[in-house]
Design a protein that fits this description.
245 residues, alpha+beta, eight-stranded antiparallel sheet
């Protein structure tokens, strides 16, 4: 496993990440189509067994259940890497931060910094009929030892000798001008490891609610999570991410 700072070929590493992200994207789209077909099949079955009005009522209930923004996703992940903290900070404040690999790895275009944002990922869907942009802003604080907002450092059972963060990185995503999601990353030197090793506490900060239709997508993401981070030189030590209202 190459570390982010010592990989002999950063372009090859990004290519590996894009390959994993595209496999994830194919599976995620297939799951989305299966859900749509299941919903259509349920409507047709209801129409065959009952009158049109009950079938339409069932269809409306399905749409509301799948699209109503009632859920939030939050949690924390602890990562470990052979790279030095300085290299990790550079990676997380770049146009392609590791925690957004599924986003920049499947983007049609990654546009560098402009208009006050650090990067913009351009995506298309429905054969180009729909497009959307994810704007990413990063902020790093290399002196703060405690997060006065109470956000961050939520991974349990991690008393492994690491000290206060040498830096905190905040990553904010905006989808077509609306809040999308955010991450708070505490970067620490590994107190029990070899010189240069780094431990990261990554907290997912909810910025929006979503419907049940997004749950299968999140489960597919989890299935590829270990692989996409390993391709970038990170080992997942602990992870606790859940859904809530």
């Amino acid at each position: 496993m190459h570390s982010p700072s010592t990989s002999p070929d950063a372009d090859a590493r990004r290519s590996d990440v894009r390959s994993i992200a595209k496999r994830y994207h194919r599976v995620e789209r297939a799951v989305g189509w299966l859900l749509a077909l299941a919903a259509a099949g349920t409507f047709l079955l209801a129409f065959a067994l009952a009158d049109l009005v009950p079938a339409l009522a069932l269809a409306a209930a399905i749409v509301v259940a799948f699209r109503a923004p009632v859920l939030r996703r939050r949690g924390a992940t602890r990562l470990r890497t052979d790279a030095a903290p300085e290299a990790v900070i550079e990676a997380f404040t770049s146009a392609t931060p590791p925690v957004l690999a599924f986003q920049w790895g499947t983007a049609d275009e990654v546009r560098p910094a402009s208009d006050g944002v650090d990067a913009t990922y351009e995506h298309s869907a429905l054969l180009g009929l729909r497009t959307y942009s994810l704007a990413v802003e990063t902020e790093v604080d290399e002196t703060r030892e405690a997060d006065e907002t109470g956000e961050g450092d939520a991974v349990a059972g991690a008393d492994d000798g690491t000290g206060s963060p040498v830096a905190r990185v905040r990553i904010e995503g905006t989808l077509d001008g609306r809040p999308w999601g955010a991450y708070s990353v505490a970067v620490r030197r590994a107190g029990d490891g070899e010189p240069g090793e780094t431990v990261l506490d990554v907290e997912l900060l909810p910025r929006r609610r979503f419907g049940l239709r997004s749950v299968p997508q999140a489960l597919v993401t989890d299935a590829y999570y270990v692989d996409v981070f390993a391709a970038q030189g990170y080992e997942i030590v602990d992870r606790d991410v859940s859904f809530g209202v």
